[in-house]
From TrEMBL:
InterPro entries associated with the record: 3Beta_OHSteriod_DH/Estase, NAD(P)-bd_dom_sf, NAD(P)-dependent_oxidoreduct
Source species of the chain: Reticulibacter mediterranei
Pfam families named among the record's database cross-references: 3Beta_HSD
GO MF annotation, one: oxidoreductase activity, acting on the CH-OH group of donors, NAD or NADP as acceptor
Name of the featured protein: 3-beta hydroxysteroid dehydrogenase
């Protein structure tokens, strides 16, 4: 198939592109900055330099494609509200319109389980959980608005929404690297009591789930949460990673309420200075709350099963980080 991957230059986008190429598809990868793209992908995939805010160019990129994976997004804990809307909502609108105009058969939208996160502990959440009345971040809100646009197009094209939870693996520049960087500066406290359970997802498992979503008839019009199907103690894993990197695991503990007050002040200052805060209310909450998911639907309809465990995934991630630093 001829496939467009938006966000092809990013962490998940590159893994997905590789999996699609290996499955024999012709892949165009869209992004703005190709400098971090693996040379093998640059050779095998067709690069499309395009900003998701350029509506006409985005629509044009959908031309002659059988399927589009909309992976690209402003995926961050902090940023300008207007940018989140322009990239995540209007960019998704342009993709949906492009798919319609160019008769793309299937659109697979990468969303996030944060669209149903209420900021409190949540256990074994299924796709049936309704959206909250208040979103924990402008990121979550705009990903939800993206879902609305994709769902609204479901009568005209085959749509599938995939919500991967907390992706980690080689090539990630956010989740573990940011925690490690904070620990190196001795600025990583443990937020909360350290007993919160979370689901992480190894990037390769997400890419394989996305591949399964390409042809499965039962997936049309549906939404799937993807995780590693292992509920883990987040701070135990963080300490294990720090230990492997010979960093201190003695983390000062602060209650979530204290972290939220500090984060609110940092965000207020950041709004004035334009520099990214060390901590946001969203990140503090994500690090302290239990968030586990039930992925029965993905197993049943997509035949999804995580092939790499969290432990093995962490080993691969650490090996890649050590290689990068060597
Ligand atoms: N990482 C996670 O834990 C996680 C969890 C749940 C859901 N997700 C979702 O998964 C997707 C991929 O996330 P990721 O972790 O791979 O993020 P990432 O590494 O930051 O990649 C984001 C991608 O979006 C592209 N992008 C951003 N703004 C753009 C713009 N204005 N125009 C064109 N392209 C733009 C970036 O391209 P350039 O940099 O080249 O512009 C990059 O390819 C996102 O939709 C995110 O919401 C991620």
């Amino acid at each position: 198939m001829k496939i467009l991957v938006t966000g092809g230059t990013g962490f998940l986008g590159q893994h997905l592109t590789r999996v699609l190429l290996m499955a024999g598809h012709t892949v165009s990868m869209m992004g703005r900055d190709f400098s971090q793209v693996l040379p093998s992908l640059r050779k095998e995939a067709v690069p499309i330099i395009c900003d998701l805010r350029d509506k006409n160019a985005v629509k044009q990129a959908c031309r002659d494609k059988d399927a589009v994976y909309h992976v690209g997004a402003l995926s961050a804990a902090w940023g300008k509200r207007a940018d989140f809307f322009a990239i995540n909502v209007e960019g998704t609108r342009a993709i949906v319109e492009g798919c319609r105009e160019h008769n793309v058969k299937r659109l697979i939208y990468v969303s996030s389980p944060s669209v149903v996160f209420m900021g409190a502990d949540q256990r074994n959440v299924t796709e049936a959980l309704p959206y909250p009345r208040r979103f924990v971040s402008v990121y979550s809100l705009t990903k939800k608005l993206g879902e609305d646009l994709v769902n609204a197009a479901a009568s005209e094209l085959e749509t599938v929404i995939v919500r991967p939870k907390a992706i980690f693996g080689p090539g990630d520049r956010t989740l573990l690297p940011q925690l490690i960087a904070a620990a190196r500066r001795r600025r990583l406290p443990q937020i909360g009591d350290g007993r919160n359970l979370v689901d992480l997802t190894y990037v390769e498992n997400v890419a394989r789930a996305l591949l399964l979503a390409l042809n499965t008839a039962a997936a049309i019009g549906k939404t799937y949460t993807i995780t590693n199907d292992e509920h883990i103690l987040l701070w135990e894993v963080i300490r294990k990673v720090l230990q492997e990197l010979l960093l201190s695991t003695q983390l000062r503990q602060i209650p979530l309420s204290v972290a939220l007050t500090a984060a609110a002040m940092m965000e207020a200052r950041a709004a004035l200075t334009g520099t990214e805060p060390l901590l946001t209310c969203y990140s503090a909450t994500i690090l302290a709350r239990t968030q586990t998911y039930d992925i029965t639907a993905a197993k049943r309809d997509l035949g999804y099963a995580p092939s790499t465990s969290v432990a093995t995934g962490i080993e691969h991630t650490l090996a890649a980080l050590k290689e990068q630093e060597a």
